[in-house]
Amino acid sequence: MPKLWQMDDYDECLESPGPGEPPGVYNRSELWKLIEEFSSDYKRHYNHQVLKWGVCIKRCQKAIEKLSPAERNALTVEPFPIDVRYKLDDGILEDISTYREAYQDVLEICVNKELNDTYGLVAYTEILSCNKSTDEVVIDVLDMSFLIVLCALVCFVTLSSWYDSSINYKRTSDHYRQPLDSKRKMVLVSFSIQRNWYRLTSRSKDELNQKLRFFHAFRFLTIVLVIFGHTSLLLVVTPTTDLEKHERIMHSVGSMILTNGGQITQTFLGMSGVLLAVKFCSFSEKRKGKVSFLYVPFAILYRYVRLTPVYAFVILLHATWLLKLQTGPLWRWGAETEQTFCRRNWWTNLLYINNYVHADEPCVQQGWYLGAEFQIFIIALIVLVTIVKIPRAKVLILGLVLLAGYVIPAVFIYYQKLEGTYLVTLEAQRYLLWYDKYYLHAYIPTHINFGNYIQGVLTGLVYNELQKRSINLAQSKVFSIVWHLTIVILPLSWLPSYMFYVNDFPTPSVWMAAYFALSKNLYGFGMGIIILGCIYGVNGVVKRMLNYPFFEPLGRLTYGAFLVHPFVMRFMFASVRAPVHYSDLLTLSLVFGATVMSYLMALVLCLLIELPTSALQNHLFRSFEDQKSNRVDRESGTNGTNQTLIIPGLAGKQS
């Protein structure tokens, strides 16, 4: 069969033209052909009817210059109906209509000549993106605004660090670990890099944070697995010399552990639910159960202010300078799309509704998780306040909410006629899942992910009850056996999903809808058992490993790494000049490199934006905070990506 990817030499094509020669123009073409039989297994194979070729216009012009008009006409194919999404909407990439008008005929004749000579086939050709040697970098007002914001942040950090150092009269490092004697001084040193470094690397000392210290390791290990999963996705997106390898993998039952790897993000949701419940119970006990519903908007505002500054900065980066930092045959498709989407749809991200609104044109695509989690956080917080206000209905309310976490996804899967699992097809990955119905309806919506967060909340409530009754699960042999079995069973539970890849079951189906809900939420149930076991130290060796000091700063940097790792990975994959052979060793090396670079960028964002804004936030909300809380380490309430959810005493004087 014709190669799915074929690319002429990009750099040679764009060399400076000689006197009287037209500027070099490099183009990626989409070609249509009928290879239906192999492509019909759409769940495990690429769609070989759609080819992506990178073609140099100068080479094409030379290749067809001697063809007669009759030969050219024979190699021209009229448009015909195509029932698959294979190109971007007009307006996403700049000047594409102009390029199509200028080069469409030349490309089609050139490509069809090669296809006909090699395979005896012809295809309809359409231009997707185009690069020219005369392209210039244009800087607009938004680009300048990013530079102004960046310079302002650097100035704040420099001046704040200088001031903090100037009032360190004893010249000791303890100065940066201790609060200063006035609120004004504390505000002025909010951006101090020395002080924020100690906030980043300090260890939490209160009893609760010591018990939950392993969450830092969970965050770090989870983001590494997320990066590994996104690497697998980008291997499908970018041109490789061994595409058949991906199709062979999809014929293996073991591939289900990889294709179901998207479930790993449920770890963040489970941890978020646990921490919300634990910190809320602590807050409620200090208030002796006197918690008003007016607490909810304050907690939401606190969390919004905590999440948004660094998130907005990354959105602004993607909307401005990402496109200008690299070139290549895939770069416009990989970076200009992001720029366009962010300039159009940034507001959906900042309102945390991007997993529903314009989800098929995502800005900072991984931000769907933040939208889903923010929405569930609001619901869970209302539920927790309700069970405190109406303690007699606690079991009933929690039971109904848990039931909703199972029933609602099943109902949507049934009426949307989806399969019994989230199908991750190779063809959908070629387009970064933007237009995939399984991704849009069975993966990113809040109602699909609601159950695992709520099960995390229930885990936190169970832990609180165990503490009240002085029950130590580490002393239970039965729980120890269940805990160890869960670690093994949880990944194996993904294997039965293979039946949905090899069969086309009729839809809608009640049993598939029920299977989807049960298998989706089984992960949250298992994570609850694992978290409880880690809290109580069921396996001492595992707990000591997870509590290693190395993980604490890495866990705190996870939110930044989560936001920037696709930025890093674009440079690693979307800047390639030709098809690459990705061996297993090279793939692991790329995962390691992406992890290291993401954490280095996260460190910069943390010291430049995240920790300074959280320090200012603490001063802003101080009247609602517990005055006895640790002013140096504000790690007491965090979500799965290390974001503050609840600070005990947040509304202590407000109820």
TrEMBL record:
Signal peptide boundaries: none
GO MF annotation: an example: acyltransferase activity, transferring groups other than amino-acyl groups
Domain Acyltransferase: 214-605
Family matches, as Pfam families: Acyl_transf_3
TM regions (residue ranges): none
Protein's name in the database: Acyltransferase 3 domain-containing protein
Organism: Anopheles arabiensis
Organism lineage string: Eukaryota, Metazoa, Ecdysozoa, Arthropoda, Hexapoda
